[in-house]
Amino acid sequence: MPGRTTFTTRLCLVTPAVPAAGFISAFEAALAAGDVASAIVASRAGGTADGDLAKKLAPLAHRHGCALLLAGEGDAGRLDGVHVETGLAGIRAAIAGHHPDRIVGAGGIQTRHDAMDFGEAGADYVFFGRLDGDAAPGIDPKAMELAAWWADLFEVPAMVMGGSDIASVREAAAAGVEFVALRNAVWTNADGAAAAVVAACRLLGTATEVDR
Question: In the chain, what are the domains?
Answer without folding.
Answer: 10-204 (3.20.20.70)
